[in-house]
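Before going further, learn to read the protein records used in this course. The integers have meaning only within a learned vocabulary of local backbone shapes. To see the layout at work, look at the sequence and tokens printed below.
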Amino acid sequence: MKEPRRILQLHLMTEKSNALKEQINAYVFRVARDANKKEIKQAVEKSFGVKVATVRTMTMPAKPKRMGRFEGKSTAWKKAIVKLKEGQQIAAFENV
């Protein structure tokens, strides 16, 4: 298994992710592109000491970007929505 620090890159805090946290007890993370659902589940359980119910993943596509006359693309990245079991919560993200 890879190190959890290499799999979980960033906790995404948006209005939609806050709504998911309140409604269905789910947290949103930016994860490594080569990570699968089992690795993400193990990384969250090991890092935060919680039990994971489900993991949903999606690859966010690269978007065209432009600066002046130069054109390029942003990098594609992977997002994971991790739903915790009933009664579980990640204390580090509760007061944010």
